Amino acid sequence: MSVDNPFAGHQLVSPTLSFETAAQVLADRYGRTGPLKSLGSHQDQNFLADCPDGRFVLKISNPGFTRVGLEAQNAAMLHLAVKDIDFRVPVPLPDVNGDLIGQIDDQGRTFDVRLVTFLDGSPLSEFEYLAPIVLQRHGALAAQAAQALADFSHEGLDRVLQWDCRRAGEVVDALVDHVADAERRTQIRGETDRAMSALNAVDSSLRLGVVHADATDVNVVVTVGPDGRPIPDGLIDFGDMLNTWIVSDVAVAAVSLVVHDLDRPVHVVSEIAKGFHSAYPLTKAEAGALWPMVIARAAACCVSSEQQALMEPHNDYAQESRESDWRIWDAIRSIPWPLAQAVIQNHLGLLGWATPDTSSWVPVVQLPADASILDQSVTGDSTPTRREFAVGRYGEGRLNESNQSSVTTGAEIFAPAGTPVVAPASGRVIRAGDKAVHLAIGDVGVVLCGLAPSVQAGTSVQQGDLLGHMVELESTGPLLVQLVTTTEVMPPHFADSSTGWHLLAIDPSPLLDTDVVDSRSTPEELIGRRDAVLATAQEHYYDDPPRIERGTRHFLFDSDGRRYLDMVNNVTILGHSHPAVHDAVERQLRLINTNSRFNYGAMVDLAEQISALLPEPLDTVFLVSTGSEANEVALRLVRAATAAKDIVAVKSAYHGWTTATDEISTSIADNPAAVANRPEWIHVIDSPNPYRGAHRGDAAAKYASEAISELDAIADSGRQIAAFVAEPVYGNAGGMLLPEGYLHAIYEKVRGLGGLCVSDEVQVGYGRLGHHFWGFEQQGVTPDVVTMAKCTGNGIPVGAVVTTRAIADALQDAEGSFFSSMGGSPVGAAAGLAVLETMRREGLQQNAATVGDHMKRRLEELMSRHPMIGTVHGMGLYLGIELVQHPETLEPASHQALAICDRMLELGVVVQPTSDHMNVLKVKPPLCIDIHSADHFVDALDRTLSEGW
Ligand SMILES: Cc1ncc(COP(=O)(O)O)c(C=O)c1O
Prior knowledge:
The protein is α+β, with helices and mostly antiparallel strands and 949 residues long. It is built from 25 helices and 44 strands. Helices cover 35% and strands 19% of the residues.
């Protein structure tokens, strides 16, 4: 057995060759020249050599390592290089004598030297945030390496190594005295002892094999995928390879990656384990051993880096490693073991509790038969009573203002003070006091919080024994009743559903002899039901969407009570569940709701108010339900008024889903065949995109002249134009402002050719632009027909088409009467009136100008730090953040945009891409959004673009 790097007091000082010496070695030994760069290393010295025939790493080994160990590394790299693996490894190259390992002398010391190929790409350590898919891929890479090394053997692997997880206890014993802080010393020692005894107890169930044993974030190299996420696909530094517990490879990788998400160490470990498990299935024992192994590994890292930092006080790398190792330690140590173990096992599908036998248990509180089960969920409205018996449910999400979900981990009992609480079965009191009793019943824990205990810790209780009495609700809240699969922890009252507490705090119904579970479908179950029953074409946001069940102002809440900032909801212009709309609709529903053929006030009032918002001669209104319907009416109007059929539309536009509006919609994001399948009566002119189109910047003026030539050509071909239809600010392109004078020139030409002009204000109109109520005002034109919907009812279907009396009459003359059953119904009209009144009262258009200007300024500031933001389109609260691969090529960052939206969702922000390339983040929140939330959005985007996604 060789002894590499014996840790007990042996000091390892890295080699310190000068660049000149290293260059000489490269030239003399390997016949190569090229600039050298130092690469950080814990104990060796590595130089990156940029040579004419490629890039190489010149490795000067620490004299503490044996030659046979280096031979084993070389053999392993060559072994992997010929295996069928989907990741890259470096290979050692012979020197001028044909040797893979040479020796050099420097300052009186002798070092082994090697040259290996360099893997292009960055180490994973350079990426801050790592998405679950990246963590899984990292784990899968380690697993593949372990699999490919299964048939590899070398005498150099059978060695004592400081980094062998099996020896973490010995390492801590030997080095813990280097830790200056006494409290930390005690903590490290205690936790390591506990971890090692847990591991030794299952040692015989942990499989052994040859593993890389150092697949840390600095030793895994990545290429960047099309979505901008790193793909771990290269493994370097085989210096710690040995025959040990196979699962230790997961622990080693996981401990190094925790630094990327210090708030969620268990998430990091479980995602890496999942990736490993997918390629190299772990056993239940290995999954259970992983967390103690993570603790032991983290402890060994801390004490080793303390030693290294003391030995090399001027080595920045050593000092930084020490800091980082302690941060990782603190993060890992803060998680209760049973919780971490349950999350990991559950994530691998290996969690299996023996369900406690509660068949003979008695209820902890005798509930009367008429005790109500409350609904305090996100959608519920039960208010707990003071003196009557009632039960709050387990697993119920509760509204809260944070970015975390808040789900009950037990049942809550509301009952009069003095109500007795008894033991459900015979057991032992673990803890009593501070208004709580913690009982152990066999292996199971029962936690009761919110009572005056009448038992003492350490005593035994029999079934039915009094544990205490309930106290006044005001002083403690309800009695919380938890059933826990372990006696080791007392779960918090509420927990985020991702933390795993609900794996430990299980359904407490047996403690009350009543079903107390909130059994609504989880988001995953709901989307499964949705996929089964709804057409796939009826799309939804996100691959794994949260279950959004509530909203208020510019916030959304999911069923677990987590709050999201809503940056996409232009339908709810006033904000979600605005009481003004609610009250108006409720009142109207109580009075009458009918079709629009009756004579009632709301319809007329709304039509009058909308018409008053438009310039002369736009004074005649049709009320409809949706934007598609509004545009459909507009098409019929212009055709009736001109007796022509042809429509000119702008490329990449969207005007609705109905047959005719779909035909004039050319957005390939919605329909890839949109342009190719146009009927002959549609003429599509170029999108006047001043950012990425044919004419950019000042040259964008050419779009209008080109369009005019095309209009002439259409007319010359003998076709009669009925209308030109366009959004006045290009919402579908992300709020892109049209070139100055564009609509003016085109409207004039169209009218000159006998056509009419339709302004689709469905997305951008109605005050959203802040500085203008209507989009056409921004262009200084007056259309012949204006369409609006979406926001007009704050979500209640009501829309409108406004035109001149003459055009409206033309429809009647040509086609008779018009009737849309729901268009302008009493309820729709009442909602529409409430929207206009509230917009005025709350100054929402002004708010759109103030907050929109602020947000645009801040987003433009981000551009200087994030070249990925190519431009910020729009005005007011219709903005578009255009993401590009490169500021010069402007190649759209489409895949990245979607991945960025996923990360923003994790950060609690709902935002989505739009445009033909789906690379523009559309920012169109409810108009009530405030500066604070606008800043929160910009900060979250800044963070995402800085840390990765
Ligand atoms: C500009 C524009 N016009 C029309 C429509 C169609 O509106 P609706 O979905 O209400 O039918 C949309 C919808 O996104 C739109 O963005």
